[in-house]
Design goal:
The chain has about 900 residues and is an alpha+beta fold. Among the domains are: about 180 residues, no CATH class; about 130 residues; about 55 residues, no CATH class; about 130 residues, Sandwich (Jelly Rolls); about 100 residues, Elongation Factor Tu (Ef-tu), domain 3, CATH 2.40.30. About 30% of the residues lie in helices and about 25% in strands. The strands form eight sheets. Strands 1, 2, 4, 5, 8, 20, 21 and 32 form an eight-stranded mixed beta sheet that branches. Strands 9, 11, 12, 14, 15 and 17 form a six-stranded antiparallel beta sheet that branches.
């Protein structure tokens, strides 16, 4: 089989991938004193109520606890009871001397006391909707104490001190080599065959033997250029542009490697952190390489496929009459040189913060409340009996609609019939249309007929009322006009007769009724019927039904309008949640982490905007000089008229905030998320159901708490340890305190080189201005018996190398026996000359043997400050194909 070939280095195709390795410090026995900031945050989180300190002390005394706080500590804790203003609280350093075990015991006593109070308020069979305000307050206090105790136990039982190795992967393509065998075609002597060569990307599936990309791999790599590792490398560091990283597992996430705890003195070239970092880096690059390999498929078929433009047919023939031959197809693989560098070491400080995503859940809470309002139409007025004369106005106001007035219990109606010159006998009829739902009252005077008749000049007048005996009619003949008011009263001088006849037969009647009367020989007259009506139960029910129907239609219209509004709000919130780019999501999460860290370090009484200052903004808004909703000057104002006195509340924490922001490298902060059950139990069901298209944001929203690894800025190590352990700026720890010693060691190590790891730039040698690295190979052999002085290497290419910069010679993991000890042969030297032929590099000397006669050894130029702790080669496929013809089968491997 032919030997692989390697082309020259592609200088413009290097990749640089940032990563880091986090190493927690292994402390066998944590100091009981110190930890002032964590203790202050814990006590503040408890929200001690008046009398709780003494109650907790009694509970500890009764239980016989040996870790109970002493009198001095109890006196300090009492100052936290109630709601004191920040200026009245003890400074964090007042808690530094209280043992952590005593504070944990005190916290457990507070939790137990609040639990007992909660149980006393809990009633059998009660539900969340029926519990009292007192119970809800007690439950809130209990949850606050439980969460605060959990966080403090995390902070006080896990060593907060650790370190972060800042690293980077440098991947440089160094050539093209023949890869794996794709297909082979054997030919007998003089045999001729037609070969079809087809090549495609995995967008279609030609045969069942061809495995296409899975959805998971495709989503990780996307559409990748098959000729390099660009997309694969990028997919591993999507969110690590500035080491702004989060991790949800203990082993590592993305470019973060989280190793087991170890002592600081163990960090050398064989340390656990270096080993885990190398393993993680190799797994990263190889996983990427494997995914890219699936992006391109090549098949060789001996059958012709027509109808596809990608198919080419070749006719192959073995020219020998005696020997068989074989034609082999190989893939072309790109060779990458991968170097893992460490360029910095930072002190870290671990803290636990509760509910990192609580603020971000606000939108989800709104969304949940809106979705709960999406329900079937339910009309609350289930019976017309609920509609009464007293309640109908309230219902009308509720649904903002005018309703028909309720009918009166009693009513009246009148019908009049006028006539003139009636000579012959005539029968007249008065039609009575009694309104629906009414009847004529059953009383003597509920139906009365009034008659006003003019006497004729001659003859007898006749007047009779049907269903009323004539004797009865004559009985009600009046001598005076008693309240009878016909529509045509008698004219002056007329002589008339007046009748007022009770129509008893109409009592209780309803609907259409008729009253007939007979008249004769009457010059003119008028007859009127007056009725007193009574509302029936059916009539009132009809009004109720009419009102109910009107209310139902109005409620239904409002329901549909409201449901559409809810749906629109839900769609807007879902769009607001999902339509956010990845970088913005990560920045929002990091801002919430920063806010949670500040609140925990400075205590719950710390306000980002004190109430006094908020009132100042409101005052300016009332005078139209400031737009408080948009945070901008308005009207004739040019900003806030703030004086030193009005801004005084901000200055209480001003120096602390300034110190924390300067001492912490917020761009290098890590955090590990803990599940929902670290949160308040009543919210578990809601938090479990939170969904987000971005997996990292979903984990952040569901987190009950977070372990935050703060990276201390270089040069601030001692000041930071003093701040968190003593709680002040002027106080200092004892020199023997382990955290102070570690801080000094980390500072010293970062100023020098890693122990046992040869530096890339000894003595702070120059680096290329553009930060680019260069790499090549050498096949020479050098021993250590060379004379002192410059040494020239015969290399494949010196392109990219520059005189005066540092060259890293040979592999990190190659070791030889030097003076009876196996040592790495890798070393770094200063480049003194570059030959014009592009094939020779001269350095100022060598101190170790280098042998490239069998396997060429690499020479690299450091592109950035750092220590090379590992290097290896990776291979990725290209779209090229090699063809080899072998006629002597006996030599085929």
């Amino acid at each position: 089989m032919p030997q692989p070939t390697t082309a020259g280095k592609l200088g413009g195709a290097s990749r640089r991938i940032p990563k880091c390795t986090y190493v927690p410090f292994d402390v066998k026995t944590l100091p009981e004193e110190g930890g002032a900031v964590a203790k202050s945050g814990f006590v503040g989180k408890l929200g001690l109520q008046p009398g709780e300190v003494d109650a907790a002390a009694r509970w500890l005394a009764a239980s016989g606890s040996r870790a109970a706080p002493d009198d001095s500590a109890l006196s300090t804790l009492r100052r936290f009871e109630g709601e004191p203003i920040p200026s009245q609280l003890p400074p964090p350093k007042a808690l530094a001397g209280i043992p952590s075990s005593s504070l944990r015991a005190f916290g457990q006593a507070v939790v137990q006391g609040r639990l007992e109070s909660l149980n006393r308020l809990r009633q059998p069979g009660d539900s969340p909707g029926t519990r009292s305000l007192e119970y809800a307050t007690a439950l809130s206090h209990y949850n606050n104490a439980t969460v605060g105790l959990n966080i403090f136990e995390m902070n006080s039982t896990v060593a907060p001190i650790g370190w972060l190795n800042l690293e980077r992967l440098e991947m440089t393509p160094v050539g093209i080599e023949t890869g794996e065998l794709i297909a082979t075609i054997p030919l007998a002597p003089m045999e001729q065959t037609a070969v079809v060569h087809k090549e495609w990307s995995v967008t279609t599936k030609e045969f069942t033997s061809i495995v296409t990309d899975s959805l998971e791999n495709y989503s990780e790599t996307g559409v990748t250029d098959n000729t390099d590792l660009a997309q694969s490398a990028t997919s591993q560091t999507t969110h690590s542009n500035q080491f702004n990283i989060n991790a949800t597992v203990s082993g590592g996430y993305g470019p973060v490697t989280a190793t087991v705890a170890s002592g600081f003195s163990a960090q050398d070239q064989n340390s656990k952190s270096a080993t885990e970092s190398v393993k993680h880096a190799i797994a990263t690059t190889r996983k990427a390489s494997a995914r890219v390999r699936q992006e391109h498929k090549v098949t060789i078929s001996t059958t012709t496929v027509t109808g596809t433009s990608e198919t080419s047919t070749r006719v192959l023939q073995n020219p020998s009459q005696t020997d068989p031959m074989r034609i082999d197809y190989f893939s072309m693989m790109r060779k990458w040189h991968v170097g893992l560098y460490r360029y910095g070491l930072r002190l870290t400080y671990d803290i636990g913060i509760p509910e990192p995503g609580a603020t971000m859940r606000k939108l989800y809470a709104q969304l949940d409340n809106l979705k709960k309002k999406i329900r079937p139409f339910n009309f609350p007025i289930t019976s017309v009996a609920q509609i009464t004369r007293e309640t109908y106005k309230q219902f009308g106001d509720q649904y903002q609609i005018a309703l028909p007035l309720p009918p009166n219990e009693t009513d009246t109606m009148s019908v009049t019939d006028n006539f003139e010159a009636v000579h012959d006998t005539e029968v007249h009829e008065i039609r009575l249309d009694i309104p629906p739902g009414h009847i004529v009252q059953l009383t003597d005077n509920s139906a009365l007929l009034y008659a006003s008749l003019v006497r004729p000049a001659t003859g007898e007048m006749n007047f009779e009322v049907a269903q009323v005996p004539q004797t009865t009619v004559n009985q009600y003949l009046l001598t005076t006009f008693q309240n009878a008011h016909p529509t045509q009263p008698l004219a002056p001088g007329d002589k008339g007769l007046y009748y007022l006849v009770p129509l008893i037969f109409l009592g209780g009647s309803y609907g259409k009724q008729y009253v007939e009367y007979l008249i004769g020989n009457v010059p003119r007259g008028s007859v009127k019927v007056d009725l007193i009506l009574k509302l029936t139960d059916a009539g009132f029910s009809e009004w109720q039904q009419q009102v109910w129907s009107t209310l139902y239609n109005a409620a239904q219209n409002q329901y549909y309008a409201q449901q559409q509004d809810y749906q629109a709000q839900i769609a807007a919130l879902e769009e607001q949640i999902s339509n956010v780019d990845t970088l913005t999501l990560r920045r929002e999460e990091n801002e919430e982490i920063m806010k949670g860290v500040l609140r925990w370090l400075l205590g719950p009484n710390f306000d980002f905007m004190p109430a006094d200052i908020v009132q100042l903004f409101k005052t300016q808004a009332e005078s139209h000089k400031f737009d408080i909703d948009h945070g901008a000057a308005s009207g004739g104002g040019d900003g806030l008229a703030i004086t030193a006195d009005s801004w005084a509340p901000v200055l209480i924490f001003g120096e602390m905030v300034k110190f924390i922001n300067e001492a912490i490298e917020w761009e290098n902060v890590l955090y590990f998320l803990y599940s929902y059950f670290w949160d308040v139990p009543p919210s578990w069901d809601f938090i479990r159901q939170i969904k987000h298209p971005d997996a990292i944001r979903q984990a952040f929203l569901r987190a009950g708490s977070a372990r935050v690894v703060l990276t201390v800025r270089k040069g601030w190590e001692e000041a930071w340890v003093n701040f968190v352990e003593v709680g002040g700026f002027g106080e200092t720890l004892l020199p023997s305190h382990p955290y102070m010693t570690i801080a000094q060691e980390i500072h010293d190590y970062d100023e020098t080189n890693y122990p046992g790891i040869p530096p890339a730039n000894p003595g702070g040698g120059p680096l290329p201005d553009d930060g680019t690295a260069a790499a090549t190979e050498c096949t020479d052999k050098f021993s250590t018996l060379l004379p002192i002085g410059p040494v020239t290497f015969n290399v494949k290419s010196s392109a990219g190398f520059q005189v005066g910069y540092t060259a890293i010679i040979d592999s990190y993991d190659k070791q030889v026996d030097i003076d009876g000890h196996y040592q790495s042969v890798q070393e770094s030297r200063t480049i003194t000359a570059i030959a014009p032929d592009g094939k020779h590099i001269t350095v100022d000397g060598i101190g170790k043997p280098h042998d490239g006669s069998d396997i060429p050894f690499p020479i690299m130029q450091a592109g950035e400050k750092g220590q090379l702790i590992a290097e290896w080669f990776e291979y990725t496929p290209t779209s090229g194909t090699d063809i080899f013809v072998t006629s002597n089968l006996a030599t085929i491997a």
